[in-house]
Amino acid sequence: MKILLMGNPNVGKSVIFSRLTGVHVVASNYPGTTVSYTRGVMKLGEETVEVIDVPGTYTLEPTTEAEEVASQMLDTGDVVINVVNATNLERNLYLTLQLLERDIPVVVILNMWDDTKHRGIHIDLDKLRELLGVPVIPTVAVTGQGIKELVENTPRATSPDTPVRSRDERWATIGSIIDQVQRVTHRHHTWLERLEDASVKPLTGGIIALAVLAGSFMLIRLIGESLISYGLDPLFNTLWAPVLLRLSDLLGGSGFLHDIVIGKIASGEVNFIESFGLLSSGLYVPLAMVLPYVIAFYLVLGLLEDIGYLPRLAVLMDTIMHRLGLHGYAIIPTLLGFGCNVPAILATRILESKRERFIAATLISIAVPCAALQAMIFGLVGERGGQYVAIVYGTLFVVWIILA
């Protein structure tokens, strides 16, 4: 048996997939994370079945490469688990109705069920099951709530006799379903929700973005410098320097081989930055100067992913990115480039056309400093003052705009 996980982008399919199969998938808010689908297996009773995490799609009438792949893969599945964002039922049900029209057994799961309570959304599950004619399971993927019920109900997936509708008829049906199953109670928005709304508006969103990015780089620098000052520097000076001095004595204190392996030694001390030996600067620079900033960058990026800020930044940047010939979510591989250009260029696969991927990859390669380069910027320029670091990044930004 082959089970397909299908749903709109960013509804938690990858997390559901991980819960079902135990296979680790990057569970982020990046748009189009699963452009290349992922396979896994799970136990369904006594049977071992294949589970496929299908690329996110809004419709089975493909307009993008990811939607084309999703539509084609539907023909190979035996059961579909349709993952629906419970907080945005109206938009998600369009794909659900299309799946029901395809005469394939379906189970619908309402993910992010806990968020419906926070937002004052009340959904009548029994009525929704009756109207759709298939099992409907509420889940919270990040905590595992509802996963056991999903596994138990997957064999009960049904394929109701659903007529093929036109687009207008589907939206009319969705409107009728929403009227019957969903009720939204008025409540006051929390300060966090107001902040989320403000983060996608042009004026306030720009201010928030600048504050977030400035704060992120300050945090990266703080974490990186702390790792260097309180961890790696003492480690190299107390443990590795004596080894190099002993090795220097064995090599005679000078000579060609000594300069290659150890480098220069002044006053009986190893200057890891200026010695330029394979075992001195060759180890110290990547491990004690660059690696801490790389680690710090990905820690901060993971934090931004977990709080859901990256998709909002993509929405905010959409207008600007369109002027550069890109979509808003091109900002995501661009941000990845500040960590390392290699995964950033690989991440350009989320962009829809070869033209966009080429533009983004070119900009990342030329005008986005990776963490290694940032470490050198902080190390060489930072000691002269933060204004010089700002000048370097400002120059790179201007180059980025000119090249675009």
Q: What does this 3D model show about the protein?
A:
- The protein has 404 residues and is α/β, with parallel strands linked by helices.
- It has 2 domains: 183 residues, 3-Layer(aba) Sandwich (Rossmann fold), CATH 3.40.50.300; 206 residues, no CATH class.
- The protein has 17 helices and 10 strands.
- It has a 6-stranded mixed beta sheet with strand order 2-3-1-4-5-7, with helices on both faces. Strands 6-8 form a two-stranded antiparallel sheet.
- It starts with a strand and ends with a helix.
- The relative contact order is 0.08.
- It holds the Pfam family Gate.
- It comes from marine sediment metagenome.
- This is FeoB-type G domain-containing protein.
Give the strand order of the largest sheet, numbering strands 1, 2, ... along the chain: 2-3-1-4-5-7
Major β-sheet annotation:
6 strands, mixed
Query: What gross morphology would you assign?
Result: elongated
Low-confidence sequence ranges: 24-34
Radius of gyration over alpha carbons? 27 Å
Estimate what percentage of residues fall within beta strands. 5-15%
Number of strands: 10
Helix-strand category: alpha/beta
Q: On the 0-100 scale, what is the average pLDDT?
A: 82
Distance between the termini: 48 Å
